[in-house]
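User: Hey, quick favor. My workstation is busy. Could you predict this chain's structure for me?
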Amino acid sequence: MSAARECRASKDFLRHIANRVIARNTAKIPLPVISDIRKALGRAEDKFKFSVFGGDPSRLVEYLDSSDFQDLVELLRAHQLEWVLTEILEELAREYEDSCPLVAERAKSAAEEIKRNPAERLKKEALDLDYIYRSLKVRGYKVEKSEEGYITLEEPGVNVRIRVADGVIEYQICRQGRAHSLEAVIAKVEKILEI
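Assistant: No problem, here it is.
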């Protein structure tokens, strides 16, 4: 029996679960973040076709395993609102437990991953190049990943190159500027050396 046949969910993830959890918590979530969550989930529904209305709810597993979902997790972590996503996932697991067990199990494990010991999780994730890339992107930086295993961040006047090696983050920061005298340049160099 295929996963689609095993999944007989009647409640739509976006409309009947996620939106209701968000609605219950609107007083605790800033409006721009609510808008970002809804946009992210709407894009995911379009991409993964997991709606009960003409789609396949079992494809929620694919979404929960995707970088699109990880981007949403990072967005909410940046605002210290990951509990909203945990609540949505726990509600999804309850609602789909009998009608779509595959999705329910993946939702439970995703919620547990989000709730895992923050210190342990942050230490592990902080040394993961994909996590660093997503975190910088969520914060609005222009970043690119190279095939050589580097991340480059370019902002006006500043270039940063980041890589993970031997369990540490190595970085190189280049600052561009202009000065009218050598003394001004030396003053900048000395400030940088103080860091």
